[in-house]
Amino acid sequence: MSIIEKLTRASHLIDMDDIIREGNPTLRAVAQDVTFPLTDEDIILGEKMLQFLKNSQDPTTAEKMGLRGGVGLAAPQLDISKRIIAVLVPNPEDEDGNPPKEAYALEEVMYNPRIIAHSVQDAALADGEGCLSVDRVVEGYVIRHSRVTIEYYDKDGDKKKIKLKGFNSIVVQHEIDHTNGIMFYDRINEKNPFEVKEGLLLIE
């Protein structure tokens, strides 16, 4: 049984055992474009990736399944070298602790996503980045574009274009990097991990 056959079985829920860790060559390979119309497997895989993120963000389910919380997942992290990513960024509660009107700021499965335009300004998360495929803390600012325009296809094969900024922009760039064999720590300045160049936007 191939990896994708195993992951897309009706009974299977993606868990941490399915996620490969740094050192696995698939994480350094440039992934293949998917072709349209998509296979049922590619569609189901995308849905299961999104379901994993939902499970990982639900405290009860995450504890039961032993999941680390995540906001993004790329197919190469599942040892499948295809350009498929899932992103799920929750909206915060308001100041009074009320749930947001829209649960998610970004909820999407993207096929063949790519950056077609980006800002001159760079940005980084003030707290740094983590990755489900990296079981250690890597400190430093991960330098990315502050704003990006992303082109991708949905599961129906419709071409989409979205503009992202802030945290959403960082999440999608992190996942697109996975489809290009790039790890987040490749973007940290080795000699000076917390260097702040002029104009760098630090996102809290």
From TrEMBL:
Active site: E175
Catalyzed chemical reaction(s): N-terminal N-formyl-L-methionyl-[peptide] + H2O = N-terminal L-methionyl-[peptide] + formate
Pfam family, one: Pep_deformylase
HAMAP family (UniProt xref): Pep_deformylase (MF_00163)
Cofactor(s) in the UniProt record: Fe(2+)
This protein's name: Peptide deformylase
Gene: def
Cross-referenced InterPro entries: Peptide_deformylase, Peptide_deformylase_sf
EC number: 3.5.1.88
Binding site for Fe cation: C131, H174, H178
Top-level taxonomic group: Bacteria
Lineage, opening ranks: Bacteria, Bacillati, Bacillota, Bacilli, Lactobacillales
NCBIfam families documented for this protein: pept_deformyl
Gene Ontology MF annotations: peptide deformylase activity
The protein's role, per its UniProt record: Removes the formyl group from the N-terminal Met of newly synthesized proteins. Requires at least a dipeptide for an efficient rate of reaction. N-terminal L-methionine is a prerequisite for activity but the enzyme has broad specificity at other positions.
Keyword NAD: no
CDD domains hit by this protein: Pep_deformylase (cd00487)
PANTHER family: PEPTIDE DEFORMYLASE (PTHR10458), PEPTIDE DEFORMYLASE 2 (PTHR10458:SF8)
Keyword Cell division: no
Keywords of the record: Hydrolase, Iron, Metal-binding, Protein biosynthesis
Family from the record: Belongs to the polypeptide deformylase family.
UniProt cofactor note: Binds 1 Fe(2+) ion.
